[in-house]
Write a structure and sequence with these properties.
This protein has 89 residues and is mostly beta strands. The protein contains no helices and nine strands. Strands 1, 2, 3, 4, 5, 6, 7, 8 and 9 form a nine-stranded mixed β-sheet that branches. It is globular, with a radius of gyration of 12 Å.
């Protein structure tokens, strides 16, 4: 099964990295949903929640204050101005 390699960092700290099935975020142009095989892209993120669906854990969210979102070759890199990890409810 294909998967994404995800890395989330904030300006001053590491947040999370690992394999995921899905990443959802809000860009300044609208909602982004990334699955394995997504075309390369670079986007500016709006403040809000990232949603991560890891391969072998429960879905969780990361609250961010904006930043950048990059996708290339099933690798997703998110660089946020500020980020707070929230466990799944």
């Amino acid at each position: 099964m294909a998967e994404l390699q995800v890395e989330i960092v904030a300006a001053d700290h590491f947040v999370w990295s690992g394999p995921a099935k899905l990443v959802k975020a809000r860009s300044v142009d609208g909602e982004i949903g990334v699955l394995p095989g997504h075309v390369p892209m670079l986007s500016v993120l709006a403040a809000g929640d990232l949603e991560i669906d890891p391969v072998s854990a429960s879905r969780f969210t990361v609250q961010i204050d904006g930043g950048f979102f990059s996708v290339d070759s099933d690798r997703v890199v998110i660089v946020a101005d500020n980020a707070v990890l929230h466990d799944a409810a």
